[in-house]
Design goal:
This protein is α/β, with parallel strands linked by helices. 41% of the residues lie in helices and 16% in strands. It is built from 23 helices and 19 strands. The strands form 4 sheets. A 7-stranded parallel beta sheet has the order 1-2-5-6-7-8-9. The chain has a 5-stranded parallel beta sheet with strand order 11-12-10-13-14, with helices on both faces. Strand 15, helix 20 and strand 16 form a beta-alpha-beta unit. Helix 2 packs parallel to helix 11, helix 15 packs parallel to helix 16 and helix 17 crosses helix 23. The longest helix has 16 residues.
């Protein structure tokens, strides 16, 4: 990749490196249409590779579905983009066949099944020999397997990155006869230098006459015969070193030393050997985990929560280890735990102490989670924070997120399963509990509704004596722009009428006050001591209908 993406790339050195790899017996070459400095030179790495492989017995692995505007990396999983990238790759490779074509990364803007069906079409049209996936999780692989035969999966994997092992992805590939291509097996350019400082690698390297990097690659290849490592050599000597690693045989003692240091298997459910249990309460931000955790605390469980302690989920597992080592029998952890890999540390720690791990998954809709998160912000601040303050809060508090960050957690969520090592997984749907003391109704009126014929009938269908809110979104606008609508509505109802406007820009939302997000109605309900579930929302279409559903309000369309 860096042969083409680096600002100081040296094409002569790159061709010499490829030639050295061929001479050393390397036969698999990984490239991608997006390996270039920017979008103006897409296909650079493919052309470079094709020019260097003059008489290739090689297998070409390339990838598509990624754009490079201004040098950025932006997935594009649309079917026409994947087909276009594949055709462009075939042209850039100058007649070399594509043995394996990978989807570079999932595109959050495109339905996953759409992208996978596009891969199947490449097979149907015989443009490539095999297809696979890159940078995916286990649920995405499972869904793809329903649609097309996946030959290989490319993920980050090595001594410094064991997430794919912990997530059961490597195991699932082994079960299905799917090859695993390990990219960045030495940790990438920023971390590769630290391998020599890892005592287990350095020790095995001394006794075997190899380098720590070669030992790291040998350990990786030893995990499973289906693993192919692509260390990303940029110099002839590193290409030859990678070839030596493939021939390096580890003895039983070296294997055990490296297994203890870097793993190689995922946790399994334990047979309980002592009284007690570890309960993991997981769910996206705003799922309501804190309230459930307090119920366990009242029953005598010790609570471990990252919002209170800080640090990473890995460090929280260390805190769990300390608690269990001190004899604490029952512990509850309430954190997001979105991925199988993040959950594995808790399961592993519980198993080591002879305790069963049980998972309680709070399965919460995005709409409910958004309401919960806004309510949490209002509880702590009293008002909705602006974009800058929200950005500052999200850096310091893991549970206070911007809307786009919360939406991303839904995309990243891997539903829990007993095969991760839990003795039980309970999925519990979120049920909203009414706030005590808030029984008054209100009326939330979208400003656009007041511009349509029939709004008077809609308003008359509400509670004329209730407090009314006129709300809108107008980038760079001011609340005074709503004064005319407030006056007109005030002539029709007996209750007080207020206004609220989100002035923030378009694009991905950077605040919670932009409709149809629930910030403005919830802030009004909090200030007026109203119950949104007893209220009415008057709007103009699906977005307002969805907002009403999230609030629990009755919807009246205009």
């Amino acid at each position: 990749m860096r042969m083409s993406t680096d600002a100081d790339r040296d094409e002569a050195l790159a061709r010499a490196t490829i030639a050295a790899a061929v001479a050393a017996g390397i036969t698999v070459f990984d490239t991608a249409h997006a390996y270039a400095r920017d979008g103006a030179e897409l296909g650079h790495n493919e052309r470079l590779l094709a020019g260097a492989l003059l008489s290739p017995p090689a297998r070409i692995v390339t990838k598509g579905g990624m754009t490079r505007p201004g040098g950025a990396w932006i997935p594009d999983g649309r079917a026409k983009a994947i087909l276009g990238d594949c055709e462009a790759s075939l042209e850039a490779l100058g007649g070399l066949p594509i043995d394996l074509y990978l989807l570079h990364a999932p595109d959050p803007r495109t339905p996953w099944r759409t992208s996978v069906r596009a891969l199947a079409r490449l097979l149907d049209e015989r443009l490539v020999r095999h297809v696979g996936l890159s940078n995916v999780n286990r649920p995405q692989l499972e869904e793809a397997l329903e649609l097309v035969r996946i030959t290989a999966v490319e993920v980050a994997l090595g001594p410094l990155d064991d997430r794919s092992l912990r997530a059961g992805l490597v195991e699932r590939c082994a079960e299905g006869g799917i090859a695993v291509i390990a990219h960045s097996p030495l940790g990438g350019p920023r971390r590769a230098g630290s391998l020599a400082r890892r005592a287990p690698l350095a020790g095995v390297a001394r006794t075997s006459g190899a380098t720590p990097a070669e030992v790291a690659l040998a350990w990786l290849l030893d995990l499973d015969p289906a693993i192919v490592a692509i260390p990303g050599a940029r110099r002839p000597q590193t290409a030859r070193s990678a070839a030596r690693a493939a021939a390096l045989e580890l003895d039983a003692e070296a294997r055990e030393d490296l297994r203890r240091a870097f793993g190689g298997s995922r946790p399994v459910a334990t047979t309980r050997r002592r009284h007690g249990e570890v309960v993991m309460i997981m769910g996206v931000a705003g799922a309501g985990k804190s309230r459930v955790a307090q119920d366990y605390v009242a029953r005598g469980y010790v609570r471990l929560n990252r919002d209170e302690r800080g640090g990473s989920l890995r460090e929280l597992a260390d805190a769990l280890d300390d608690q269990l080592s001190s004899g604490t029998p029952r512990v509850v952890l309430d954190n997001t735990y979105l991925t199988r890999a993040s959950r594995s540390y808790v399961i592993e720690t519980a198993s080591r102490h002879g305790l069963a791990a049980r998972c309680l998954w709070l399965d919460t809709s995005l709409a409910d989670a958004q309401v919960n998160l806004v309510e949490r912000l209002l509880d702590e601040l009293g008002v909705l924070p602006g974009p800058e303050e929200l950005r500052r809060l999200s850096r310091n508090r893991s549970g206070l997120l911007a809307p786009t960050s919360q939406m991303r957690t839904f995309r990243e969520l891997e539903p829990p399963s007993a095969d991760e090592g839990f003795v039980e997984v309970e999925a519990r749907r979120f049920v909203r509990v009414p706030r005590s003391g808030r029984v008054r109704p209100g009326v939330f009126v979208a400003a656009a509704a007041l511009e349509r014929d029939g709004w008077e009938r809609a308003v008359a269908d509400g509670d004329a004596k209730a407090p009314h809110l006129v709300f809108d979104w107008s980038p760079d606008g001011t609340p005074e722009a709503l004064d005319g609508a407030v006056a007109e509505l005030g002539r029709r109802v007996a209750g007080p009428v207020e206004r609220a406007l989100c002035p923030h820009p378009g694009g991905p939302p950077i605040c919670w006050c932009r409709p149809p997000l629930p910030g403005l109605p919830l802030a009004f309900a909090r200030a007026r001591d109203l119950d949104p579930a007893r209220s009415v929302l008057i709007g103009t279409g699906p977005a307002h209908r969805n907002l009403a559903a999230a609030l629990g309000a009755r919807y009246i369309g205009v």
